Amino acid sequence: MLLQGKTAVVTGCNRGIGKAILERMAAQGADIFAVVRRETAGFTEYCAALSAEHHVEIQAVYADFQSEEQVKDAARQIIRTKKTIDILVNNVGFSYPFKMLAMTTMDEIKSTFQVNFFSPLLFTQLISKNMMKNKKGSITFISSTAVFDGGSDTEYTASKAAIVGAVRRLAIELGVFGIRVNAVAPSLTDTDMGHNRSEADTVEALNRNIMKRMGQPEEIADAVIFMSSDMSRFITGQVLRVDGGLL
User: Global pTM?
Assistant: First the structure.
């Protein structure tokens, strides 16, 4: 129960890596604000069942990260609860089908950056004020190994690289308030987004991986749990690669 008594905010948690993080955090005893794009009966029921199973409180919060106003509203809703936020996981992410920059529009580039970088940075700015007041907290961004090997399309890779730069600076700014800021960088993972490329591209990526397979969402989630818990209390400003030995 690494997160017993803690309150977490997790974005983009209705599927894939985010859903695995939500499940792992509930199992480790955290109360959670689960931020997803829109309300559905299925997700509401899922949160209720997960909450009952692990005896934690899970509250769904809705925000489309293409909209700065919705991001602000979501942060205000969370802050109005007066709860102490111990953990923030910026997992929300977006990618268009894999293609070359020459075939990509500027609108696609801007929307990718909005979801992957600008809105998470805005959300962090708002939620971190709660953490600063309480002089503690852990913030984890989900980046990508594409930052290091160029293994995805240009706008996705660049947006995830921007996260790494922000993590380095935020760790300095927020460290004086007892807040740690890190990133987890998965390689190709078995999610809807992970399958958003051609078979040939997938095979090429896996051939560069020592373990010769995709990562599983639960494996990424376990790394996030570590970064969010007191087990990593002396780690900040770092990027943890979870990539099966990507060379």
Answer: 0.95
